[in-house]
Amino acid sequence: RMAVDLAAAYTECDGNDDVRAVVLTGTGRAFCAGADLSAGEGALAKQDETAFSAAGLEVAAWDVRKPVIAAINGHAVGLGLALAMQCDIRLIAREAKCGFVYVRRGVIPDAYSHWSVPRAIGFARTAELFLTGRMFSGDEAVEFGIASRALPAAEVLPAVLDMAREIAVHVAPLSAALSKRLLWENQWLTREAVGRKETALQHVAMGSPDAIEGVM
Q1: 210 exposed, middle or buried (CB, 10 Å; 0-12, 13-18, 19+)?
Q2: Can you spell out the DSSP letters for 94-107?
């Protein structure tokens, strides 16, 4: 149910021009503790191969044309951390306990983790975290490059909301959308291809009302 609701919320935010930035956070002491394992040995039972997808969400944060900021206010484990890695920016609580613990549960990282995490933190660190499944702190998450800033838990959401307001007030929405698109695409593009795309997208932005207002 959460996957369906979150995908719907992302779709709504993407289509609403009044939304300039999106904040993803959790309630209580956790950001998201991952899959519900309360069913015991049946929690990770084999799924119908024609219906099951490891994607997690039908619409990911990178599909939203506005900046999506994860306010990781507490523990982020398994799928919970994988969903945060789909966001553009991540701030995290120092007290958070994090981990890609899949291999300790007999499954593998999902929700595009094998693509999103190496591009953020590199192969060596990804391999260490994925293949050991060990837990790590919010401060370590910043050290690894998973998050850009670690704060006391109570300060994470206010800091992210301040950032979102900064974007809403000062950032041209088309510029943010174009830059975000290229940031997510550039992992598999050559330097020359990035140069061509930057030129093409700059022609879209230059001369726009936002570019004129930005200069003035």
Answers
A1: middle
A2: TT-EEE--GGGTTS
